[in-house]
Amino acid sequence: MASTDSLTDSLTDSLTDSLTDSLTNDLCRRLGIRYPIFGLAHSIEVAAAISNAGGLGVYAAARDGPNELARKLRDLRALCPGVPVGVDLLLPTSLPGVSTPEDIAAAIPEGHRRFVDSLFARFNVPEATRGNFFSQYVRSQALFEEQVTAVAQSDMDVFAAGVGTPADTLARVRRAGKTTMALVGAVKHAQKAIAAGVDVLVAQGYDAGGHTGNVGTFTLVPQIIAAAGGRPVLAAGGVGEGSQIAAALAMGAQGAWLGTVWLGSTEHGLPAALTDRLLSAGSEDTVITRAHSGKPCRVVRSAFSDAWEAPGAPAPLGMPYQQALTGRLLAAVEEHEVAPLMYEAAGQSVAWVREVEPVAHIVERLVRETRQSLENLRSYLPL
Ligand SMILES: Cc1cc2nc3c(=O)[nH]c(=O)nc-3n(C[C@H](O)[C@H](O)[C@H](O)COP(=O)(O)O)c2cc1C
C-alpha cells in the first residue's frame, strides 16, 4: 500500500497536471479542484490534507481569537501551497454587539452554575489549568468583526458562513476575492443568503453533525436547488460514502460537503477516549442537544448530553451563555481526558468512522465509491 505521503504527493502531482477527471464538474473547474468533495474540520492539518487530496478543505475557525486566526490561516496556506482552501466562521446575527466574559458570567443563573459544579463532582473532574476560547472571548458582533477582518486579509480562496449570512460581511470577503458559501438548513435561509449575494449554497440537512435544522438532507437538497436560481448547491449532512455523493450529483448538487468523516482521520489526532467513542458509535448514537452551544446541535451521545436530558436538569441557556457556563467544565474534560464526558459534534454519518486513517485514504475511498455508484447506475439504467 502507498504511504500517506506518497499517496498525497501523487494526488497533488496529478492535480497540477490536469483537472480532467470523470468527477470534475463545473464548480470544480471554477474553484480549481479535482473532486466535488468539500470537507470542513476544526484542524488546519485536516483541511490542508483534504485540499492536497484533490477536494476542498475548509478550516472551521469559529473558536479562534483574531490574532490566532490570522496565524493559523498563514500556517494553513503553508500546509497546502498552490491548491484552493477555505475558512468558515459562525456569524449568528442575534448575538450581543459587544460583551466581555465578565458581563456574560454575571447573567448566568446560580442554579445553572450549581448544576455544572455537580458534574465536576460526579465525574471527579479536576479544574483546568489553562483557559480556552470561552474563558477569553464571548461570541459577539465585535469579535465577529475582528474574525472577518482576519479572513478578508488572508489568502484563503473560499469563505463559508456556518450560521448567519450578514450581507456586509459577504460583500467584504467577496471584494477580497473569495468565493462565498453559506450553510443553509431551510429554503428561507437560502433566500436570505442569496439576497446577501452568496456564490454557493450548502444545503445542510438534519442528519448533519453540528448546528442543524429539522429537514433531512434527502428532502432539503432538491428544495434548495429549486430555490438557488442556478447557483451551485452542495449536499451536506449524513454523507459518509460515495453512493451518497453519486446520489447528491444525481439530485443536481455540484458536490457533497462532509464534516464527521474526518474526525477519524490520523491528521485530526483526537484524544483516544473520544476517538473510541466515535469509532464505536452508530447513526443512532447521535443526539440533538442545546447543551453544547445553546442552539440545536447534533453531537455524539455522552454522559454530558445525557446529564442535560436527565430529570431535574436545568434547561440549557441560549447562545452565548451556555458555552460561557460549560466552558470551564469542557476545558477541564478535554485537558484531563475525562472519558465519559468527552464528546464532539457528529452527524449520523458517524457510522462511517470505522478506523483511524489518513485523510487521503478517506478521499480516495469516497472517489472510488462515487465512481462505482455512477457506473452501477449506468448499468442498471442504460442512459
Ligand atoms: C465536529 C464538527 C464541527 C462542526 N463545526 C462547524 C463549524 O464550526 N462551522 C460550520 O459551518 N459547520 C460546522 N459543522 C457542520 C459541517 O460544516 C457540515 O455541514 C456537517 O458536518 C455535515 O454533516 P456530516 O457531519 O454528517 O458530514 C461541524 C460538524 C462537525 C461534525
Automatic annotation (TrEMBL):
Lineage top rank: taxon: Bacteria
Entry coiled-coil feature ranges: none
GO molecular function (one): dioxygenase activity
Alphabetical list of Gene3D superfamilies matching this protein: Aldolase class I
Keywords assigned by UniProt, alphabetized: Dioxygenase, Flavoprotein, FMN, Oxidoreductase
Keyword Lyase: no
CDD domains, A to Z: NPD_like
PANTHER family linked to this entry: 2-NITROPROPANE DIOXYGENASE, MONOOXYGENASE RV1533-RELATED
Protein's name in the database: 2-nitropropane dioxygenase NPD
